Amino acid sequence: MSLHSDPLEALRLGAGVRRPRRWRRTPALRDLVRETSLDPADLVYPLFVVPGEGVRRPVSSMPGVDQLSVDALASEARDIWALGLKAVLLFGIPSAKDPHGLESHADDGVVQRAIGALKSASPELVVITDVCLCEYTDHGHCGLLDETGYVLNDETLDVLGRIAVSHAEAGADIVAPSGMLDGMVGAIRGALDGEGFSGVAILSYAVKYASAFYGPFREAADGAPSFGDRRSHQMDPANAREALREVALDVEEGADALMVKPALGYLDVVSSVRDRFGELPLAAYNVSGEYAMVKAAAANGWIDERAAVLEVLTAIRRAGADLVITYHAKDAAAWLQAR
Ligand SMILES: [Zn+2]
User: Any idea what DSSP says for residue 152?
Assistant: First the structure.
């Protein structure tokens, strides 16, 4: 007797009764039961601002990404807004670096001027700023150093507060401390509130791993450490439970939103942070190395770039991220608008 000729046997096995494929038969049926959405408003586009005028310098390891001077930001802001994107994350490359990263909190610093340019071109565009010292220090580390080259924690917190206040004064909506120093969120909250910026939110890089996938970013942001690495403050890729401890501390200190970085190798962490701290918005950073891999494979004709990018971004959202910070944001937004 064949399997399907015996109704009871078929029922026992579920054949003919439970058929998940019924929901996959047509595009409309699939649209109807899709669990995860992807919208341009879910994406944040990183920008790298450099000194000078009329600069649009391609980042060789990140095809499609350029370093821009402040004067180029007005048209960029309007393009970004027209694509349906709501937010940018700003990184600055200063004109001069020193051991203390002084330009990070200068009134006429490159980021401070960039915020003004973006806001006057597109007032509604949400401007998020990276708050760290690594792009500004001549040694390329995320804080002040002791004589052995170790990043000093508490001595650096005061500087981070000053950077955040200077970004707020320039008009930033959200500051995003990325240095993984203990107490950074509380220190920045105190500094902002002390200067009357209680409305400026903190998106904390609460869980940032010491990842090999930041390589291309270091070209884009000119922020490679001149010696050593960042393992004394960024997390060990082997640790997931420790991530929950990092998040709990940042929540206690007053973080308004959380981030996991990188995204693709850490979707389990995105998911567990979502489960444990679901009351706060969660961002995941689809980092430069992840971007470069997709671009390189696509350039070789090895993958379909559009399909791969939309799949990657959907997967990060499915893991639990509300927001995805991604260099693919402009392309993805254009594809989503055309859908
Ligand atoms: Zn840093």
Answer: P
Residue type for 325, please?
I
Q: Each residue of 96-129: pLDDT tens digit? A: 999 999 999 999 999 999 999 999 999 999 999 9
What radius of gyration do the chain's Cα atoms show? 22
Q: Is the pTM of this model over 0.70?
A: yes
Residue 293, pLDDT score: 98
What is the 8 CA–ligand 1 centroid distance (Å)? Answer: 64
Q: Active-site residues: which are they?
A: 208, 261
Query: Are residues 131 and 163 in contact, defined by beta-carbon separation less than 8 angstroms?
Result: yes
Provide the b/e sequence for 32-69 (b: ≥16 CB within 10 Å): eeeeeebebebbbbbbbbbbeeeeeeebebbeebbbbb
How many whole angstroms from 140 Cα to the centroid of ligand 1?
8
- Distance from the alpha carbon of residue 134 to the mean position of ligand 1, in angstroms: 4
pLDDT score for 132: 96
Quick: pLDDT tens for 179-207. 999 999 999 999 999 999 999 999 999 99
Buried b (16+ CB within 10 A) or exposed e, 98-112: eebbbbbbbeebbbb
Q: If you measure from the C-alpha of residue 273 to the centroid of ligand 1, how many angstroms do you get, rounded to a whole number?
A: 22
Nearest to 210 by CA among 270, 266, 255, 161: 266
Pairing mode of beta strands 174-177, 201-208 = parallel
Residue-level pLDDT at 222: 81
Rounded to whole angstroms, how far apart are CA atoms 166 and 105?
6
Alpha carbon separation from 6 to 9, 14, 79 (Å, rounded)? 5, 12, 62
pLDDT < 70: residue spans in the chain:
1-5, 7, 10-16
The DSSP-derived string for 34-91 is ------GGGEEEEEEEESSSS-EEE-TTSTT-EEEEGGGHHHHHHHHHHTT--EEEEE
Q: Which pLDDT does position 221 carry in this prediction?
A: 83
Q: How far is the CA of 24 from the centre of ligand 1 (A)?
A: 45
